[in-house]
Structure prediction request, 243 residues.
Amino acid sequence: NNLYGNQPVPIEFPENWEVKVHSYRGETASALSQEQIQQALRNPQNGSPVYQDARGAKTAVIIVDDITRPTPAADIAEEVVTQLLEAGLAKKNIHFMFAVGMHRSMSRDEAVRKVGEKIVSSYHVFYHNPFFNTVRVGVAKNGLPIELNADCVYADYKIGIGTLVPHPHTGIAGGGKLIVPGIASVETIRRYHLLPQKRWSLDTSARQVTIEAAEMLGLNIKIDALLNGQGQIARLFVGKCGE
Prediction:
């Protein structure tokens, strides 16, 4: 894992096994430079860049996926903060929320691995707790109640940072999945995971719930990274969630 040293792990197989190594398209893609990341964030595929869109907002929350996801978020987070400051927000009113869902909370070291020491030592960093401080923002079309982290709900401007990877429940992890289950209440998460599944399909009620939840939250912009075989950012998708 690129957040745990990014070193090869030796694996021994029985001699009578026939082992084949399969690659995937994009495994050897070149990593984006810091300048290319900045340019991608300042030129979204849809919608306006943060430095324009966040003007007039007083508070902002940057929601980041947790340590179980390989997103190398430091360069992204620093550019997002730069744009929020350009938009006129005060540094003290910019917060980070790790979307741990029902996973355990993260250590400070893990937060540094995700977003870098500069961010962790300079901004308020919080970890979602699904057992309290959530509010109901609506009900999905399939009847699932959507209860989300109150600090995220009440922030004026909301940004999400995550990674696109295959996922059996929603076809792909990324997009609104950062919101449900990422910052949802324990009851919303429980009922979300009981939804009917079509393994590896994008046409699922679970994926539809994630899109609806992002809309109910008022997620202003979602940033999703596509990684190469070394866990480096090869492409960035920036814009409105679900579009």
About this structure: The chain is about 25% helix and 20% strand. The chain has a mean pLDDT of 95.
